[in-house]
Design brief:
Layout (H helix, E strand, L loop, with lengths): L6 H22 L4 E5 L2 E5 L3 E9 L4 E10 L9 H27 L8 H14 L1
Antiparallel strand pairs: 1-2, 2-3, 3-4
């Protein structure tokens, strides 16, 4: 297997992949904010939530749903700021994964990544972060 990366490039590729994977896991997990409501533990992230209150019309009261799930729609995300955060974080994770997977391919394919491509990839990583 030929490589277009130096030893530092291989380390960069592996660390890029690990950081992108950690960012994506953090994005998909609903544990950004933790607290309690109606004496139950509650957590939520940009587009997922766990243990959330809903109105039970048959009993005319608010009950806690003790399960994790996504919001029903993009508009159901609680605020405009959280919607913006969802989009920006999702795009950042996508950019980080794109660069990391390209860098990992550079470990296996000769002449895939040049000095210019490496600099552009570093800039994309900066934007993605």
């Amino acid at each position: 297997m030929a490589s277009s990366l130096t030893c530092a490039g291989v380390v960069w590729a592996v660390l890029s992949f690990l950081c992108a994977a950690a960012s994506c896991v953090g994005f998909f997990m609903p544990y950004w904010l933790l607290g309690s409501q109606l004496e139950k533990s509650v957590s939520f992230g940009t587009f997922r939530r766990c243990s959330y209150p809903v109105r039970d019309e048959s009993r005319q009261m608010t009950v806690m749903v003790e399960q994790c799930g996504r919001y029903a729609s993009f508009q159901a995300i609680p605020s405009a700021e959280w919607r913006i955060c969802t989009v920006v974080t999702g795009l950042g994770c996508g950019l980080l994964l794109l660069v990391a997977l390209t860098a990992l391919m550079g470990c296996c394919v000769s002449e895939l990544i040049s000095r210019t491509v490496g600099r552009v990839a570093g800039g994309i990583q900066f934007l993605g972060g």
